[in-house]
Structure formats: C-alpha cells, structure tokens
Amino acid sequence: VLYELFSRGGVPWEDCSNTVVIEYLREGKRMPIPPTFKIKFVIELMKKCWEESSQDRPTFKVSNNPQCSIF
User: Fold this and answer.
1) What one-character-per-residue DSSP string does 39-65 give?
2) pLDDT tens column, 14-46
3) Deepest in the core among 8, 12, 23, 37, taking most CB within 10 A?
C-alpha cells in the first residue's frame, strides 16, 4: 500500500505476470522506489516491509514512532 500511496496511484508490477514477479522476488530483488518519492523515513519503512522474512518486517507498533505522524 505504501507504494501505491507514494507513487500517486501507481500499480506495482504493472507490466509483469505473477510468475515473473515471484521469480524476481525469489532472486532477492524488489521494486524500485517511485522516483517522485523523497521522504527518507518512509523509503526505509518501505524497504523493511519488503523483507523476505516476516520476522524482519516492522510490526504495526511502528506507528507509535513520531515520524509516522505523516500518515
């Protein structure tokens, strides 16, 4: 959802089939950050949300962080 919000309604993986996306992710690759996006805190949050292991992804408790007040 962060990608859609900060790419101004962009569709992630728009030109790719599900098979291509799965293979891309299995190779450890991730989508590029939208070029119009400049807020460093949210860029880092997006990257953490895209971690392969759910144990490495942030929890909803991250919203207690004052920097999240932009949401």
Assistant:
1) -HHHHHHHHHHT-SSGGGS--GGGGGS
2) 888 999 999 988 998 888 887 777 888 888 888
3) 37
